[in-house]
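Hi W., the flavin-adenine dinucleotide complex you wanted:
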Amino acid sequence: MEGDGVPRARSATSRGLPGPPLLAVLLLLLCGPGLGEPRAPPEKIAIIGAGIGGTSVSYYLRQKFGKEVKIDVFEKGKVGGRLATINMKGQDYESGGSVIHPLNLHMKRFVKELDLPTVQCIDGLMGIHNGEHLVFEESSWFIINMIKLVWHYGFQFLRMHMWMEDIFDKFMRIYRYQSHDYSFSSVEGLMHALGGDEFTGMLNRTILQSMQKAGFSEKFLNEIVTPVMRFNYGQNTGINGFVGAVSLAGIDSGLWAVEGGNKRVCEELLKFSKASLISGSVIHIEEKARNMQTGGPKKAYEVTYKTDSGINTDLYNIVMVATPLTSKTSRISFLNFDPPIPDFHQYHLYPLVTTIVRGRLNPPFFGLSATDSVGLSDILTTDNPNSFVYSISMVTPVKKEANLQSKPATDSAVWKIFSSGSLTKEQLNLLFASHDSVEEQEWLAYPQYNPPEKCPPIVLHDHIYYLNSIEWAASAMEMGAIAAHNAALLAYHRWYGSTEMIDQEGLYEKLKTEL
Ligand SMILES: Cc1cc2nc3c(=O)[nH]c(=O)nc-3n(C[C@H](O)[C@H](O)[C@H](O)COP(=O)(O)OP(=O)(O)OC[C@H]3O[C@@H](n4cnc5c(N)ncnc54)[C@H](O)[C@@H]3O)c2cc1C
Ligand SMILES: *[C@@H]1O[C@H](CO)[C@@H](O)[C@H](O)[C@H]1NC(C)=O
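Structure:
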């Protein structure tokens, strides 16, 4: 891990100049203040949004810029954003981002550094429902499962694992690049550095096209891949190949979560990075030439925000936008920029409803007799007109002591249902033989994926960065953390003019020969 704010030594291949602070002093002496890029450290940084993106960027900014800089985090709702819990009968359940992959290294680093306890997610039995009956049911017997899988789908599962492993191997390169402090000024550039044209090409094609090209069967695509896309992104195989692969990783084994709720990572990151939380909604950002406390006249960004006590403004050297910019989710205006910052009206997030229900599933709905037990803990659905839900999964409270681990599905259990809209009473009565509590949470959950994907820019202005552009490649907690680390490095290198740390070509080969 990098030292706190201390720039790392340059690699042997760079020009052998002294590190940024000394270089900054030399340049200041040569050019005088106010000329060229600003070289004194930034005084204040604004972060808009306290989800996993905003809070992890505050962590990485603190690490890069050191302890002097003041970091303000604006949040109009709750810390955690799309990481949130819902309360039912005294117990909390994850209602947004819930599972974390074992290879999500930023999330792993955070829980370790913040000393947060974690829980393993139950690897329950999965079934696939086609609107009338179960087209596939996992068995708790490993051997029977294997025979079933091969019987139904040949060796496609195995091939899928090999296909994903190749993508994963390349994806993991990001951690290497970031630990060497390299950053990227566009999502496409970042993707290209990971896996070349093959990787950026995944953003241009649907997961259906990608997997058809790789030789997967229609049956496998319809009965397995489509339900997984519906379960994880509420969309079908028309989503881009990269988010499709991320989605398939979401049914791997070894998934975990943070005890007490994943949002705790955000709360603790804020404290750890000694950022100030400002409960308010940012309305607009304007570029201003003003005298800062030190140095001569400099350009700064005036952030205008609304709190309970009224409208306020404040000046910042760097601004991090850590919330999706779409027509609906965030109405931040960029005033008087020349050239103007593009608006984001062509970007949309998909609505999704999480419903938590305590009840007993209705076997006949799943094509079983009333006396059967459903016996599954995850029921995914194919894309068909009869499916009014994306998925139904058994869940446990975020607090460990109440773990219901081995409770059979016939008894009343707590289920989490994803659907495109609110479930009606009739629909709930179809799914459940009996139920006693229902809670729901509406989300604008993910981008509406529509390849060829054009990701929004990361650099909106000299020192304004947009983290959530990465969501148009794939939306997940770890993607937010990767975008945050990248944005912190990018902001740092652009501040000190270290262009050789940005958008380097051939990084993989370069780092391979360096070690
Ligand atoms: C139902 C659901 C299930 C999911 N499941 C998973 C999963 O299992 N695993 C996984 O990895 N990911 C999952 N995700 C995705 C994951 O939750 C998101 O990718 C991630 O949480 C996004 O974090 P973020 O910080 O980028 O954005 P957000 O969490 O949306 O944070 C943005 C914050 O900015 C605030 N804000 C917006 N505008 C302003 C303003 N003008 N002024 C001040 N504050 C503002 C918002 O209130 C919000 O808190 C899921 C998402 C949903 C909705
Ligand atoms: C992806 O599509 C864009 C146009 O939408 C094109 O410019 C780019 O070269 C394509 N990339 C690859 C790797 O096919």
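The first strand starts at residue 44 and ends at 48.

W.
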